[in-house]
Amino acid sequence: MCGRFAQYSSRDDYFEALGAGPEELIRDPEPIGRYNVAPGTKVMLLSERDGGLAFEPVYWGYGPEWWDKAPLINARSETAASGRMFKPLWEHGRAVVPADGWFEWQKSGAGKQPYFIYHRERQPLFFAAIGKAPFDREHGREGFVIITAASNQGMVDIHDRRPLVLTANAVREWLSHDTSPAHAADIARDSALPESTFTWHPVATKVGNIHNQGAELIRATDAG
């Protein structure tokens, strides 16, 4: 699953990684600086609007009026396109969360050891997401969820689910309103980065407290 992640780079960093054109590069080199993004907060989200890229804060979580539980934060890639809860979002509310890595917790004795997972070359990541569009409107708890996929090749030792991370080249097509839901499913299947793209290291347990937000949260520490 994905319950915490880091979004600390700047708008410029994320847009340049996507190969955005000059007309879309409204310069903002200021780092976002969030090292411990938690559900229930507003997160900078990429979506398509009028053929261009929109980048704005949107609530992380999805709980429509009829849902009497805590808002959901993830949706499984295997069922999101067809399930009652998420099918409308898959069809009309595809988005992307730019990120720098995410956290997972591995059982360690009587407790859990957190790990920070990130691109081997420290490249920006683009998590596939779906939500209540249009994203420039306030929808209360009907925000967005991050799409997850099954883990393998060693990452499963930490957690059996992970964010579905799209290649930079696939982001615009995923976001496009011209992309059919069926083709979006193809993109999710064929244009996700494999586990071999990532590396990880243990970090301090204080990442478990959402009030902790500094860069030290992603620094390697001794496990155990």
Put the structure in a nutshell:
This protein has helices at 11-17, 87-92, 168-175, 181-190, and strands at residues 4-7, 34-37, 42-49, 52-59, 74-76, 94-99, 101-108, 111-119, 125-131, 144-150, 161-163, 198-202. With 224 residues, it is α+β, with helices and mostly antiparallel strands.
What does this protein structure show overall?
It contains 4 helices and 12 strands. It has a 5-stranded antiparallel β-sheet with strand order 2-1-7-8-12, with no helix packed on it. Strands 5, 6, 9, 10 and 11 form a 5-stranded mixed β-sheet that branches. A two-stranded antiparallel ribbon has the order 3-4. Helix content is 14%, strand content 32%. The protein is of the alpha+beta class and 224 residues long. Strand 3 and strand 4 form a beta hairpin.
Task: Give me some keywords for this one.
4 helices, alpha+beta, 224 residues
What is the element layout, followed by pairings?
Elements: E1 4-7, H1 11-17, E2 34-37, E3 42-49, E4 52-59, E5 74-76, H2 87-92, E6 94-99, E7 101-108, E8 111-119, E9 125-131, E10 144-150, E11 161-163, H3 168-175, H4 181-190, E12 198-202
Number of helices: 4
Overall mean pLDDT stands at 91
Strand order in space, largest sheet: 2-1-7-8-12
- Poorly predicted residue ranges: none
Shape: globular
Strand content: 25-35%
**Rg (CA only):** 17 Å
Overall SS class: alpha+beta
Helical residue percent band? 10-25%
Number of strands: 12
Q: What's the multimeric state?
A: single chain
Characterize the main sheet: 5 strands, antiparallel
Q: Span between N and C termini?
A: 22 Å
Note the run of SSEs as H and E: EHEEEEHEEEEEEHHE
